[in-house]
From TrEMBL:
Keywords: Cell cycle, Cell division, Cell membrane, Cell shape, Cell wall biogenesis/degradation, Glycosyltransferase, Membrane, Peptidoglycan synthesis, Transferase, Transmembrane, Transmembrane helix
Protein name listed in UniProt: Probable peptidoglycan glycosyltransferase FtsW
Membrane-related topology note: Multi-pass membrane protein
Family: Belongs to the SEDS family. FtsW subfamily.
Location of the protein in the cell: Cell membrane
General function of this protein: Peptidoglycan polymerase that is essential for cell division.
Residue ranges of the TM segments: 12-30, 50-69, 76-97, 103-126, 138-157, 163-180, 187-204, 272-292, 304-326, 338-359
Main location: membrane
Pathway assigned to this chain's UniProt record: Cell wall biogenesis; peptidoglycan biosynthesis
Gene Ontology cellular-component terms listed: cell division site; plasma membrane
Annotated GO biological process: cell division; cell wall organization; peptidoglycan biosynthetic process; regulation of cell shape
Length: 364
């Protein structure tokens, strides 16, 4: 490490560990009943999550002790982008799981290239904006090249299909362009175009259109496309102020499919109530606040943009998850960072947060 490096942002570090601990406990609570029935092992998902969480902590601490400025290497980033694009192509030839091709590997050993793409688009965009300087205000020379790469990532991910992650990647790229000094009128035009593309994307895929219609009125098809949204609302409503108690959820008993994944926040609401939900939202708010604070205090533009990108990624993804489980958005497969069950998603989130912690060392 650089001799001038200080200590990590300790409040951020504590918030990360608290959210991770809550996640491990809630994965166990949400999965233990079905694990007992299907695997004859109540700890099936818990054991995997502990392994990934342990790898995540090691990865985070490692990243926190490697000077982020070493990432500002054009050749290294180019190589990372090529590898990521190849992985996004390879995954399209993998066997489909639940109608989608998102994994390379088998079972718990698999990785999700789209999770790598999230981190790589942040690194690429931050480096690109830093190198362009004032040229970022140019639509042709500044904005378009970055959007083409983000669009390529999004296109390949859409083929899986995974529209939600594609939207997140483009959204984070646009947020970085805004932070990097791109003109508002350029970004406003892109935003409008993005809405048009999203509407087309929903209309051309029957399953997306069904989800959208179910979002508007889930009770029109309570046993079909509206089922998951309705069961999630039941979980949210059953929790009350203090919840029914840890491990006591009824909705995880076959009502919410794979409750440890995208809809784990519903189980949290049912078991821990409004107080538990508020506590977790406050923790995410603290994480986002500390992240943007690090970005503002970083004297290096490259580091500031990376911090902005990582924080924005967490903010966007967690917000989407909160909105989906409470039926303010159509159902989409977006996990809750640090809390939902998952291997590569948790691992690469922890790597990203490790980089964020390292940036905080340079600002202390």
């Amino acid at each position: 490490m650089n001799k001038k490096s200080g200590t990590i942002d300790f409040p951020l570090f504590i918030v990360i560990l608290i959210l991770l601990s809550i996640g491990v406990n809630m994965v166990f609570s949400a999965s233990m009943w079905e694990d007992k029935q299907f695997y004859n092992d109540s700890f099936h998902h818990l054991k995997k999550q502990i392994i990934w969480a342990s790898l995540g902590i090691v990865s985070m601490l490692t990243a926190a002790n490697i000077d982020y400025r070493k990432l500002k290497n054009k050749k290294l980033i180019f190589l990372g982008m090529i590898v990521t694009i190849l992985l996004l192509i390879i995954v399209l030839f993998m066997p489909a799981v639940n109608g989608a091709k998102r994994w390379i590997g088998v079972g718990s050993l698999g990785i999700q290239p789209s999770e790598i793409a999230k981190l790589m688009i942040i690194l690429y965009t931050s480096d690109n904006i830093t190198r362009k300087g004032e040229k970022i205000k140019s639509f042709g020379k500044g904005v378009i090249p970055i959007l083409l790469i983000a669009g390529l990532f999004a296109f390949l991910i859409l083929l899986e299909p995974n529209m939600s992650t594609a939207v997140i990647i483009v959204t984070v790229a646009i947020m970085l362009l805004f932070a990097g000094g791109a003109k508002i009128n350029h970004l406003a035009g892109i935003f409008i175009l993005g809405i048009i593309v999203a509407v087309i994307g929903i209309k051309i895929e029957p399953y997306r259109m069904k989800r959208f219609l179910a979002f508007r009125n889930p009770w029109a098809d309570p046993l079909g496309d509206g089922y998951q949204a309705i069961q999630s609302l039941y979980a949210l409503g059953s929790g009350g102020l203090l919840g029914v108690g840890l491990g006591q959820s009824h909705q995880k008993l076959y009502y919410i499919p794979e409750a440890q994944n995208d809809f784990i926040f519903s189980i949290i609401a049912e078991e821990l109530g409004f107080i538990g939900v508020l506590f977790i939202i406050i923790l995410f708010a603290l994480l986002v606040w500390r992240g943007y604070r690090i970005a503002l205090n970083c004297k290096d533009k490259f580091g500031s943009l990376i911090a902005t990108g990582i924080t924005s990624l967490i903010a966007v993804q967690s917000s989407i998850n909160f909105l989906v489980v409470s039926s303010f958005m159509p159902i989409t497969g977006v996990t809750l960072p640090l809390i939902s069950y998952g291997g590569s998603s948790l691992l690469f989130t922890m790597v990203a947060l490790g980089i964020l912690l390292n940036i905080s060392r340079q600002t202390s």
